[in-house]
């Protein structure tokens, strides 16, 4: 049996004399990452007082924001270089300049994005790799008790001004802007916006409209369609012409009644199109549900009984559904999540009933409709999970983000959790709560490839807690409560879900630990290859202080940042992990 050597020189030699099986050349090449790892750490780097967002998917830029959330600062990653006169430089410590942030990054520009009373949404950023465009957002403060006027949904907050900025990343020039006034778009972790190639979907929660825009190569936003009140481009024209016809018909009738009745009838005859009809997307949804139930039975008596129990009994519940979230499946289909108003504005919507639907934008039809606890939908999610992850077609390494549908180890982990679950229905609901996926929410770093490495991804049960983020600090000021503790929600702006993972490919803040996170080879000999330790090298002086961490991995280089934040606006600790 051929013994696979892990020495990098031997692997290069094997690559020269051996030909991998058809279709496996990229997988073989990626195994070089088992030898090229970020095994050296520079602790407590001297860094600018910024909030670091992420590396772009092509690795060309590091995006950050000023502490006051008014300026965008973009860096270019570069490798540390220094000279050494000795023969074995690896035994020497790095020079003092290695502890400086500018030894690893070059600042390209710093530009102001906000105007008046706006602030940069530090959790929002999308990157268009094909044109090297960046999409950023600024907004004013939320108004939680805003009145529902002009067709707005009651109970949804309002933001006076939301501005989307399209930038050319190379030089920071603002190419175009898109402004939403007195609206609400969920910008946390890109939840309310989805980018697919050159198509952009923006979900207005307040007015229940999906705005489809196209980003041209010239750097302009072009309106394609709006899905919500109307589905086809001529729907509004048809309804307005019909309303005019109704007005003319009513006027003709009014001339035939006594004079003293005309004034009253004229007020009653004014058509109110906005209140007379359900929205176009809601009518499509109700029609699909009705037709599905109708076709399930052939006997008329059973059919009427089924419709009475399954459709008319829940009719108002279906009418009250609102759009929560949207993602592209391809250029023609959207995956839309529906739920109650409370769940749409809640920071933790897992406890609210929800539904997902596939919508064809060309035919304006609902293709399928599932409740988020449906076993059929879970089977599709388990077998074809990659179809829900829409990635750039220009970057090959974006196709190697591990999921349970493309990686046997991730599938075994999922099934192990499923087998241990005490309630199968709750497990299915929990897994499907992530649909639709947030755009560009996962790192393509090869060190999260579960066919190459396994890592400490779970916290022990006694260490679990809830973390609440305040809006004023760099990474989010964390205020922690043990599970079961009564929650004090005053001045709390963002509520994070229960954090169980120490590290993963998903872009989220996580519980920090003084113990290093180990990355171990998945394949033989299963050795420890490197560790990632956030915070000071000697650990925290105050063991009682709760800390959160974020990890920014370069998409293809052995290079990463770990950022540890504690309570009460204490300075962050930034470590740089790289291959020396």
UniProtKB/TrEMBL annotation:
GO biological process, one term: positive regulation of proteasomal ubiquitin-dependent protein catabolic process
Stored SUPFAM superfamilies: Six-hairpin glycosidases
GO molecular function: ubiquitin protein ligase binding; ubiquitin-like ligase-substrate adaptor activity
Pfam families hit by this protein: Det1
CC annotations in GO: cullin-RING ubiquitin ligase complex; nucleus
InterPro entries given in the database record: 6-hairpin_glycosidase_sf, De-etiolated_protein_1_Det1
Protein name as it appears in the record: Acid phosphatase det1
Lineage start: Eukaryota, Viridiplantae, Streptophyta, Embryophyta, Tracheophyta
């Amino acid at each position: 049996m051929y013994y696979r050597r892990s020495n990098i020189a031997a692997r290069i030699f094997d690559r020269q004399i051996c030909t991998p099986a058809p279709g496996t050349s990229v997988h073989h090449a990626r195994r070089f990452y088992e030898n090229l790892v970020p095994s050296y750490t520079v602790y407590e780097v001297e860094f600018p007082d910024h909030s670091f967002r992420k590396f772009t998917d092509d690795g060309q830029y590091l995006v950050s924001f000023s502490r006051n959330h008014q300026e965008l600062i973009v860096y270019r990653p570069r490798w540390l270089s220094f000279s050494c006169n000795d023969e074995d430089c690896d035994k020497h410590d790095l020079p003092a300049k290695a502890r400086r942030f500018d030894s690893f990054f070059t600042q390209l520009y710093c530009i102001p994005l906000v105007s008046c009373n706006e602030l940069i949404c530090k959790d929002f950023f999308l990157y268009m790799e094909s044109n090297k465009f960046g999409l950023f957002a600024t907004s004013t403060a939320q108004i939680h008790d805003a009145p529902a006027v002009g067709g707005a949904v009651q109970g949804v907050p309002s933001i006076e001004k939301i501005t989307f900025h399209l930038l050319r990343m190379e030089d920071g020039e603002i190419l175009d802007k898109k402004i939403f006034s007195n609206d609400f778009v969920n910008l946390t972790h890109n939840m309310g916006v989805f980018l697919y190639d050159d198509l952009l979907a923006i979900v207005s929660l307040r007015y229940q409209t999906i705005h489809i825009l196209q980003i041209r190569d010239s750097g302009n936003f072009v309106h394609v369609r709006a899905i919500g009140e109307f589905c086809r481009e001529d729907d509004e024209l048809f309804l307005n012409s019909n309303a005019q016809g109704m007005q003319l018909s009513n006027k003709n009738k009014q001339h035939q009644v006594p004079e003293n009745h005309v004034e009253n009838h004229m007020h009653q005859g004014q058509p109110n199109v906005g209140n007379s009809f359900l929205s176009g997307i809601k009518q499509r949804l109700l029609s699909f549900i009705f037709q599905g139930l109708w076709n399930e039975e052939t006997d008329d008596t059973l059919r009427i009984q089924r419709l009475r129990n399954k459709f008319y009994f829940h009719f108002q519940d279906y009418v009250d559904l609102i759009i929560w979230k949207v993602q592209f499946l391809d250029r023609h289909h959207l995956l839309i999540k529906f739920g109650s108003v409370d769940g749409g504005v809640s920071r933790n919507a897992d406890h609210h009933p929800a539904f997902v639907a596939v919508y064809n934008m060309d035919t304006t039809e609902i293709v399928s409709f599932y409740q988020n606890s449906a076993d059929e939908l879970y089977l599709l999610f388990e077998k074809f999970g990659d179809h829900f992850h829409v990635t750039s077609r220009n970057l090959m390494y974006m196709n190697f983000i591990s999921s349970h549908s493309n990686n046997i180890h991730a599938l075994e982990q999922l099934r192990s959790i499923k087998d241990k679950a005490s309630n199968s229905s709750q497990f299915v609901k929990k897994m499907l709560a992530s649909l639709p996926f947030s755009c560009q929410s996962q790192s393509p770093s090869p060190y999260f490839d579960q066919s190459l490495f396994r890592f400490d991804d779970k916290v022990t049960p006694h260490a679990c807690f809830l973390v609440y983020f305040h809006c004023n600090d760099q990474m989010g000021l964390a205020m922690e409560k043990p599970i079961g503790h009564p929650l004090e929600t005053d001045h709390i702006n963002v509520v994070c879900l229960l954090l169980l993972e120490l590290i993963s490919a998903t872009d989220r803040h996580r519980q920090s630990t003084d113990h290093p996170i180990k990355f171990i080879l998945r394949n033989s000999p299963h050795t420890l290859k490197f560790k990632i330790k956030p915070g000071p090298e000697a650990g925290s002086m105050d063991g009682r202080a709760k800390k959160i961490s974020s990890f920014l991995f370069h998409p293809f280089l052995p290079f990463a940042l770990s950022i540890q934040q504690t309570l009460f606006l204490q300075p962050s600790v930034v470590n740089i992990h790289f291959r020396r």
